[in-house]
Structures are given as structure tokens and as C-alpha cells.
Write a sequence for this structure.
């Protein structure tokens, strides 16, 4: 006998799968953690199978959960498309989002996936660049809104995340012990370049630039090869690299902030809608 599936249970399932935890999913859906747990329990009872494996405060999909995942996206997409068609004018058009290169992959995919799923008629274009260039692009109208990494926290709801800038190196690497210290800095417009050089010079550390004009891939490659160290946001250090501990003797680096900027005029309706999704995504971290 066929049974109906409660779409809210599927939406909760996807939120947990994408965020990797009940607490993060609760922030995303604006529900309590208890409500999230109950919805997952109801869905597992409906299918008579566990969908998540819980171990050591981590949660991951079971094989049955992975089977459901692709169909769950299709269910939600069809549900949302039908709802928009029948109840409200759909958002249409193009939106250009500026994003610093080092935060695109670690932070944006779940946010962009949810936005694109729920607004399929909007063409979302990513513009990856350095913070200074992105702020100029926003001022000139070349992007509709932009994320930035800045030394000053944005006011009001502009601040998305504050994080410690740390030294990053290869796992069990030796570059941090070399003299002069090899530092991979990237281009002159890198937001971390100024405070990093200030810290090195104030501490009177002898250093040499490695990969002085490279892109993010070349910087990461030089770090992984143990050719150099580099400044990076602590929470975004890739799993194949390591934050260098303070006892290595490198000078301390400042706290940095990920901010969200819209045009001074406030931005378009679509830009404000995307900004809402971005704020919700960061709040769920």
C-alpha cells in the first residue's frame, strides 16, 4: 500500500545531510534541535530503516540514507517549483555574487545548492577575486553583492563570521623552521598580505616571498610541498594541511572577518533574497 511522504521530513533530512549535524540543521530551518531529531525519527520510522549513523558526536548517512539523498533533492525541487508556480511570481533573472577565492569551496556549496534548488529560474554567477577587487566591482556595478575577508567586522547583519588568522603549513612540515622564513603571499591585493607583513616586520623575522604573484592553487601547492608557509583563516585550513602551532615561534596574526556587502542603495530584490540565504547558511555553521 502506497503511503504519502511528508515533504517537511524530506527537507529536514536534506538539511541534516548537507550541514552534517542536527544543531546546524536546526539553525538552517529555524527549529529546535529536538524538533529536528523528531522529524528524522519519523522519517526513519516511515521507511523502517536508519538513515543516519551517529558515532562520537558525528553524523553521517547510512547506505539507505545515501539512496534517499538523490530522490530527496528531486522531491524538494518539484515541491518548491510547484509551490512557486501556484502561489507567487517566481524570481527570475541573473545575480552576480562576488566571493574571495579562499572561501568559495569551503563555505559556499551548501548555500548555493539550496538557493539554486529553491529558485531554479535565477541564473547565479560566481565572481571569484580578492577582496579589494570585489569591493571595487560592487561599487562599479559589476557584481550585485559580495562576500569579503576584512580586518574590520561589518556592522549590523553584514558580519557573517569572525575567525583567527593563523600560519598554515604542510603536515609535519619544516618550512616554518627555515631562515629566512619562506612565505607564500599571492598577489598584492590579497587581504592577508598587509597584516602578515606587518607582523613579520614587527617581530623582526627575516623572510622571503615564495609564489609572490600566484593564484590560490599555486599558493596551496607551495604549502603542500613544504616550500613555504602562508596566512589562512583557521576554520578553513584544508584537511591535507595544518595550522602551525604557536610554539613554533611565528608572530601572532590578527582576527579577520567575513562580511557581506550589498550596494549602498540596498540592492535588488534578488540580491536581498540571496543575501538572506547566505546569512542563514553562515548562522548554521
Amino acid at each position: 500500500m502506497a503511503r504519502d511522504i511528508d515533504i517537511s521530513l524530506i527537507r529536514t533530512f536534506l538539511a541534516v545531510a548537507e550541514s552534517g549535524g542536527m544543531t546546524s540543521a536546526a539553525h538552517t530551518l529555524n527549529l529546535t534541535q529536538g524538533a529536528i531529531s523528531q522529524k528524522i525519527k519519523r522519517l526513519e520510522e516511515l521507511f523502517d530503516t536508519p538513515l543516519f549513523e551517529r558515532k562520537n558526536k558525528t553524523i553521517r548517512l547510512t547506505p539507505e540514507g545515501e539512496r534517499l539523498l538523490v530522490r530527496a533533492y528531486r522531491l524538494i525541487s518539484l515541491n518548491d517549483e510547484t509551490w512557486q508556480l501556484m502561489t507567487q511570481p517566481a524570481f527570475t533573472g541573473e545575480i552576480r555574487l562576488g566571493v574571495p577565492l579562499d572561501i568559495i569551496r569551503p563555505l559556499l556549496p551548501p548555500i548555493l545548492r539550496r538557493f539554486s534548488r529553491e529558485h531554479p529560474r535565477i541564473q547565479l554567477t560566481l565572481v571569484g577575486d580578492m577582496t579589494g577587487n570585489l569591493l571595487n566591482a560592487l561599487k562599479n556595478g559589476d557584481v550585485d553583492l559580495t562576500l569579503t575577508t576584512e580586518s574590520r567586522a561589518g556592522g549590523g547583519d553584514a558580519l557573517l563570521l569572525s575567525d583567527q588568522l593563523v600560519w598554515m603549513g604542510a603536515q609535519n612540515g619544516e618550512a616554518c623552521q627555515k631562515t629566512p622564513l619562506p612565505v607564500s603571499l599571492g598577489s598584492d591585493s590579497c587581504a592577508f598580505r598587509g597584516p602578515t607583513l606587518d607582523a613579520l616586520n614587527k617581530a623582526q623575522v627575516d623572510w622571503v616571498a615564495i609564489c609572490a604573484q600566484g593564484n590560490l592553487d599555486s599558493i596551496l601547492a607551495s604549502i603542500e610541498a613544504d616550500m613555504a608557509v602562508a596566512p589562512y583563516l583557521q576554520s578553513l585550513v584544508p584537511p591535507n594541511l595544518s595550522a602551525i602551532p604557536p610554539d613554533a615561534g611565528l608572530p601572532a596574526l590578527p582576527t579577520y572577518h567575513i562580511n557581506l556587502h550589498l550596494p549602498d542603495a540596498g540592492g535588488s530584490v534578488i540580491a536581498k533574497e540571496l543575501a538572506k540565504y547566505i546569512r542563514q547558511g553562515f548562522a548554521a555553521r
User: Anything to note?
Assistant: DSSP finds ten helices and eleven strands in the chain.
